[in-house]
Automatic annotation (TrEMBL):
Short name of one Pfam family: Ist1
Domain of life per record: Eukaryota
One of the protein's GO biological processes: protein transport
Homology family: Belongs to the IST1 family.
Name of the molecule in the record: Regulator of Vps4 activity in the MVB pathway protein
Native source species: Paspalum notatum var. saurae
Region forming the signal peptide: none
Length: 200
């Protein structure tokens, strides 16, 4: 029994180290995405000013992609910190609080979507050993206790959602005091669907 306890403690130590490394890497991974998000926002504003509504929507799609990844990074950071700070609970996974189970499930789900955070894949293996294959299967699929917002941000079909792209373009236009006839956006997209899909 003592041997098993030592093994579990060693696993807990390992997962803490991995999550701390992921937190360090998160800070680095955020910077280029923040820069790209800012550039996309500026590009959308300029394109709207010039009346290039279709191209503005393409850039809005890229803005959404960066925004969603940054939102997922916020959730991952929260989960990593929660698991590190309350790691002692991981020695008795069946007694973990709901918040800890949500954090573990969130990390397990995010691992497959975040190639820039390779530590999450290793942490997922340890967490799977602790919480069991049924829990891990649900977490990997993004069901059960996984936060739907994290699932949506990482894997949802939100980049191609026209209403969302229009909403982002409208918000950027409003922030920059740009007057745009957004009814033209639908016309531009209909023309694009007919066949005028030139690259940005």
């Amino acid at each position: 029994m003592g041997f098993l306890d030592r093994k579990t403690s060693k696993q807990t130590s390992r997962v803490k180290k991995l999550l701390k490394l992921a937190l360090s890497r998160l800070a680095v991974a955020r910077r280029p995405r923040l820069a790209r998000k800012s550039i996309c926002s500026g590009d959308v504003g300029q394109l709207l000013c010039l009346g290039h509504l279709h191209r503005a929507l393409l850039r809005a799609e890229q803005f959404i992609e960066e925004y969603n990844r940054l939102q997922s990074f916020d959730a991952i950071e929260l989960y990593c910190n929660r698991l590190v700070e309350h790691a002692v609970q991981l020695d008795k996974p069946h007694e973990c609080s709901e918040e800890m189970r949500e954090a573990a499930a969130g990390i397990m789900f995010a691992a497959r979507w975040c190639g820039d955070l390779p530590e999450l894949l290793l942490a997922r293996t340890v967490l799977e050993d602790k919480f069991g294959s049924d829990f891990a299967a649900m977490a990997k699929e993004g069901t059960g206790i996984v936060d739907p917002m994290l699932v949506w941000a990482l894997s949802g079909d939100n980049k191609t959602n026209m209403e969302l792209k229009k909403k982002v373009a409208k918000e950027i236009a409003a922030e920059n005091n740009i007057l745009v006839d957004f009814s033209e956006i639908q016309e531009a997209m209909e023309q694009d669907n007919i066949g005028s899909s030139s690259p940005c």
